[in-house]
Amino acid sequence: MECNVAIVMIHDYLDDELPREDKIKLKEHMKICPSCEKRFEQLQRTEAFTHTAMISGLSESRGDGKGRSVQAVAALTSRIMQQMPPARKRKPGFVDWVRRHPGLTAAAVFLLVMLTSFFVMWDQGTELIVKGAGEDLQRIIIDGDTVIVPPGVQIHGDLTIENGTADIQGEVMGNLTVIDGSLKMASTAKIIGENREINQALDWLWYKVSKTVSGLAY
Amino acid sequence: MISIEAHLARLSLKGDQQAFAEIVSLYQEKLYHMAYRMLGNRQEAEDVVQDTFLRIHKNLDRYDEKLKFSTWIYRIATNLCIDRLRKRKPSYSLDAQPTDHEGLDGYSMIPSDNRTPESEVLLSETQQIIHQAMATLPVKYKTVMVLRYLQEMSLQEIGDVLGMPVTTVKTRVHRGREFLRKKLERVL
């Protein structure tokens, strides 16, 4: 057996972790290797000395009253207890709830942020917005917040009006959408496509979503 | 069935000061001895004990009852000791004799150690050599040696306290032992 293997075995022996058969092997090796035997004895004594030195210094200094006396122990105890914050009233408060349910908290905060931004978006833009094909837009008349499709005029594409009144006297071939406004139709009016009025937040949201989705689809 | 400590922890969490005082009396001496062996200084050892209990008290609600209470409290205390040792000036040898203080080495300059010369004499020469050798042990070996030989913990327990694998603990015990053997060679 090599000496470096033997040294590892010596340490394992001192840790009380050397298997029986290795103990025999180590013994055999030390019979023929005086340096390992010396090493073993030195380490064994180091171990014993360290152990006693660690323990004895403390008990001795206490025994003769020069070190840690009963009074010193009591003094430290009272010092520690004085440092303690007064008994906390532990009502399971909001913060505790938050700490215990991180997932729910995150979901709630997310929802709150989403709703806030959604309503902010809903509230903003009280000005009139008209969307449609360029040539169609030239044929309509805007009077204040009223969008007039004059009689006899034919709008070929879709027409979207936000925050305004639509006064349809002519023909709209595409879809007509009125958001946050009202629709007036003259008897001459003709809407070929779909005609929708959106006034509630949820309808508006649905409109935005379905438009996005159909926009993605094409 | 939960341990006594876990039971006391529950009580003091409800605001029972007496229960916490009980925990303090259970562990104060053990922690003090450990800190004293780590730091070699009474005042600092007391400070570490105090800090440990403050932390314990503050974090009682986070104590995991699956973990042994002693493992938890020793983990906090060893970390505080290691922090203090690391904050000390590095590469300052206690054995070096400063030129302006004839005959005084670093040991005589450690403040607030109440050991009197008489009690110093009571320590055998061998023990003094061992204590001096211990003082020069690198922190990572010192920690495992103190837990092993003072607290008489198993390698597994030391691993739990320090949060490291048993194999690492074993290596450190072996190296620490070899370190001390070399320092003690002339008295062995």
From TrEMBL, chain A:
Query: What name is this protein filed under?
Result: Anti-sigma-W factor RsiW
User: Keywords for this entry?
Assistant: Membrane, Transmembrane, Transmembrane helix
Q: Please report a single Pfam family linked to this protein.
A: zf-HC2
Q: Which family does it belong to?
A: Belongs to the zinc-associated anti-sigma factor (ZAS) superfamily. Anti-sigma-W factor family.
Q: Which residues form the Putative zinc-finger domain?
A: 3-36
InterPro entries reported in the protein's UniProt record: Anti_sigma_zinc_sf, Znf_put
Superkingdom, according to UniProt? Answer: Bacteria
Which residues fall in a coiled-coil region?
none
- Extract the signal peptide range: none
Membrane-traversing stretches: 104-122
TrEMBL record, chain B:
InterPro entries given for it?
A: RNA_pol_sigma-70-like, RNA_pol_sigma-70_dom, RNA_pol_sigma70_r2, RNA_pol_sigma70_r4_t2, RNA_pol_sigma_r2, RNA_pol_sigma_r3/r4-like, WH-like_DNA-bd_sf
Check the record and name the CDD domains matching this protein: Sigma70_r4
Keyword Transcription regulation present in the record's keywords: the answer is yes
BP GO annotations = DNA-templated transcription initiation
**Where would I find the RNA polymerase sigma factor 70 region 4 type domain in this sequence?**
128-180
Enumerate the UniProt keywords alphabetically: Sigma factor, Transcription, Transcription regulation
Q: What does the similarity note say?
A: Belongs to the sigma-70 factor family. ECF subfamily.
State what protein this is by name: RNA polymerase sigma factor SigW
Q: Which gene encodes it?
A: sigW
